[in-house]
Amino acid sequence: MMPKHKPMVLTGNELHHQLFCEAGPWCDGWEEQEIAEKLGVPYDEDTDRLDDDCIIDFWWRVEWPEHVTVAQFNADATYHGPFCTEEEARR
């Protein structure tokens, strides 16, 4: 059986843009600390910021479970990474 949503492989810049652009989940109230936890990247409680470079400098694979109707970059997605190369992210 084919998955409902095809996994996406993204550069760190692409993923960062999807998460933090004007229409992204961050603007809809998804807190940076929650994003950091979901991605497994460092979060600095003193500055209230996640480490952007830990997203931007790597490759990521994003997948969605079958119950998701519309694939969005939010807490429903599963984020795999960081990967050093695109080839690693595609495995």
Instruction: Tell the overall outline.
Output: globular
Order of helices and strands: EHHEEHEEH
Low-confidence stretches: none
Q: Give the class from helix and strand content and strand pairing.
A: alpha+beta
Fold and architecture overview:
By secondary structure, the chain is α+β, with helices and mostly antiparallel strands. The chain is built from four helices and five strands. The protein has helices spanning 12-20, 32-39, 53-56, 86-90, and strands spanning 8-11, 43-44, 49-50, 59-63, 78-83. The strands form two sheets. The chain has a three-stranded antiparallel β-sheet with strand order 1-4-5. The longest helix has 9 residues, at 12-20. The chain starts with 7 loop residues before the first strand and ends with a helix. The mean pLDDT is 90.
Any key phrases for this structure?
globular; alpha+beta; 91 residues; 5 strands
